Amino acid sequence: MLIACLLTAMPVPQAALAGDYARTEILGFSGDGAHFAFEEYGIQDGSGFPWSNLYVIDVARDSWTKGSPFRRLDEIDDSQPLDFEAELASTRAANHEAASTAIEAAAISGAGATVAHNPSTERGADPHMMIAGTRAAAPALGPTIELRLSETPVQRPANCPEGFGTIQGFRLTLTHDGETRVLNDDTRLPDSRGCALRYRIDRLVVHYPEEMGRPVFAVLVLVERIGFEGPDGRYIAITGRL
């Protein structure tokens, strides 16, 4: 494998000696709520290369727009001391530039507010449940949204190695205004998910469109999957209207 060859040819930086959990930047919704965008980025475990994935999503279809996602991985030479954060910043800037036309076409404006956040470092909250008001302002916090996630074993894809645990899909429901609906219910894993082991509800972003139509939402789910040197953390977004 390419990564294995790279590891024998160069020293592994300190930043790559563990599983690689992505960091995120929420680019937000378009003003009309039709599109949502976010970026995940980090230093790849094993190789130590900086990477960035940027997603532009059609909210109503809950699917990527044309050309999305924008993925960039820069193979840097770390035989000499490097500032990995500076290298990562350069990779991210280049990927944002590559995605700029799609971001402009989707009219992403940073609209929306994170009304609940349960990061992977949190140890006191249930990773499979999130309850939040829809407006990040007191005292009118808006109607409540309740998210519930359950993990469901699925058939192991042929490319997923044995010995790392059960390969899992997930079911996600949203309850709002007395109605519960299913946002996701896996029967098999999409190829883009990798070899998923665990999930947690990470974030809920809500936006009330400018024309005062139905509010829109994006749920970020953290996927723990088999990585090169340990579990890797990557994000998926599920979108829709309330």
Strand content: 35-45%
Low-confidence stretches: 1-17
Order of helices and strands: HEEEEEHEEEEEEEEE
> How many strands?
14
Describe the structure.
By secondary structure, the chain is mainly beta. The chain has one domain. It contains two helices and 14 strands. Mean pLDDT is 89; it is low at 1-17.
In short:
The chain has two helices and 14 strands. It has 242 residues and is mainly beta. The longest helix is centred in the middle third of the chain and has 22 residues, at 84-105.
Topology:
Elements (H helix, E strand, L loop, with lengths): L1 H8 L13 E8 L4 E9 L6 E9 L4 E2 L5 E4 L10 H22 L2 E4 L1 E5 L11 E5 L10 E10 L14 E9 L2 E7 L10 E12 L8 E10 L6 E10 L1
Antiparallel strand pairs: 1-2, 1-6, 2-3, 3-4, 3-5, 7-12, 8-9, 9-10, 10-11, 12-13, 13-14
Short key terms for the protein model shown above:
disordered N terminus, four-stranded antiparallel β-sheet, globular, 2 helices, 242 residues, mainly beta
